[in-house]
Amino acid sequence: MDYGHFGDVISFDITYKTNKENQSFGVFVGLNHHRETVIFGAALMYDETVDLFIWLLETFLQAMSEKTPKTILTDQDAAMTKAISHVMPNTYHRLCTWHMMQNALKYVNVVFRGPGGVKSILSKFIDDIEEENQFLIAWNEMLEKYNAQNNNWLKSIFNIREKWAYAYVRHVWSTGMKSMQLSESFNANLKDYLKSDLNVEQFFMHFGRVVNDKR
Question: Which domain covers residue 151, as residue numbers?
């Protein structure tokens, strides 16, 4: 029922690893009409291949009466990106801006020196610039100013700018979601319940308690 009402915009995060097999744990989450976190589904991942993600997305949709979301947010995982385009070709795939900024700190923090650093510089492209031509002009000016024309990470995110830049996503239905910190917060709550020595059955029993506590 929750997904039927609030499943137009969802996020999927696979960053949390738990249980004694150290498997990746992924959660599908969204927002309800009170802007509270809603958990739609979860999975323990034995690997993170394209085929596995295709199976996961297809299984999720089957459980949700084949209702596809209008928008899905994920990190920059290439395998998940391919799976989404295969299973949900009409769903708009947005990148989580929080994960993107963490990657920016990792890959280009040394490139941008000055007040505010990388966060200040990239945030205007993520949040502020509204028109495509303005984005392109500002982007080229940034590359020239910091002599970053050959930076591979900046090239890679520019090539997928329609997934994260405000100039391209401002008309996309998103209920205000632009990051996966909903699931990050939920993952933090899991740590209060789950222990690394749990087997699969115990894990999902405890996970059910977490979900019930969120209702």
Answer: 97-169
Total domains in the chain come to 2
Q: Residue 194's pLDDT is what?
A: 57
Same-domain pairing of 102 and 204: no
Residue 83 sits in the same domain as residue 185 = yes
**Predicted pLDDT at 182:** 53
Report the pLDDT value the prediction gives residue 212, as an integer from 0 to 100.
74
pLDDT under 70 in the chain at which residues?
A: 1, 15-22, 178-198, 213-215
Q: Are strands 71-74 and 92-95 parallel, antiparallel or unpaired?
A: parallel
Residues 206, 198 contacting (CB under 8 angstroms) = yes
Shared-domain flag, residues 150 and 196: no
pLDDT at 160: 96
HEC string for the chain: CHHHHHCCEEEEEEEEEECCCCEEEEEEEEECCCCCEEEEEEEEECCCCHHHHHHHHHHHHHHCCCCCCCEEEECCCHHHHHHHHHHCCCCEEEECHHHHHHHHHHHCCCCCCCCCHHHHHHHHHHHHCCCHHHHHHHHHHHHHHCCCCCCHHHHHHHHCHHHCCHHHHCCCCCCCCCCCHHHHHHHHHHCCCCCCCCCHHHHHHHHHHHHHHHC
